[in-house]
Amino acid sequence: YDDITLRYVGRAIPPAESNLPLKALTPLELDLGSGDCTIVCPKLEQLQTAARRLAEAIEANTQHVPRRVDDTVAPQTLGRGPILVMGNLIVSAVAKKLYFEGYDFTDYAWPGRGGYVVRTIRDPFGTTANVLMIGGSYPEDIVRAAASTEEIVATRGPKLGYLNDVTLGKNADLIAGWSSEFLKDDAEWKRDGSLGSWEYLWQIGRA
Predict the structure, then answer these.
(1) Nearest to residue 99, comparing CAs of 187, 205, 186?
(2) Cβ of 206: how many Cβ atoms within 10 Å?
(3) How far is Cα 36 from Cα 99, in angstroms, rounded to an integer?
(4) Which partner from 89, 136, 150, 160 sits 20 to 30 angstroms from 22, CA to CA?
């Protein structure tokens, strides 16, 4: 059975060059004054309090109050966005979806206790709604991320472009030491096995 020949009889496939040039992406923009702006937040009391404060800060800069919904919502029902996702893999169903699909990696290990992230994600749900991930490894860190978002809105205004504000927590030295070793061969993907692989991330999510 090692002499099998496969013959494709379908429509001719044009060479890749005929599909170029690719269209440039539109500039990334999250308009927090949009009527579809939504804060997605778990039911944890301290996070709900932080979400209310964030909504008030956005209202002060836009004269519009963003919706606040539970983290179990289907993202496809949230319109054009932007969608502000508060949480991490463990506490938020929407953040878990982002995690499993490779858009965000906020969990108990990263960015670590005391750290937080505020970062944009372009249309992860295929609905044209861009996401602002407001996350941290523990609830108090997510609260810090929300407070940082309030400051960003106050200083930059309600229309945000690309953001990647990451503050590492107590594991910063370990994370930097581990990742710098792998960056040496970054031109060629050699990350396999348990740690550092998609299988590892999937196992974390199942925990």
Answers:
(1) 205
(2) 6
(3) 23
(4) 160
CB 166 within 8 A of CB 106: no
User: Is-contact 204 96, C-beta < 8 A?
Assistant: no
Collapsing DSSP states into helix, strand and coil, what is residue 110? Answer: coil
Model's pTM, two decimal places?
0.76
**Nearby residues of 74 by Cβ (< 8 Å), 6 or more positions away:** none
- Strand-pair category, 67-70 with 83-87: unpaired
**Helix H segments across the chain?**
45-62, 93-100, 139-156, 172-183, 198-206
Residue 153 region by backbone torsions, left for phi larger than 0, else alpha for psi between -120 and 50, else beta:
alpha
Q: Along the 207 residues of the chain, how does pLDDT read in single tens digits?
A: 556 666 666 666 666 555 566 677 788 999 999 999 999 999 999 999 999 999 999 999 999 999 999 999 999 999 999 999 999 999 999 999 999 998 999 998 888 899 999 999 999 999 999 999 999 999 999 999 999 999 999 999 999 999 999 988 887 777 677 666 666 655 554 554 444 455 555 555 554
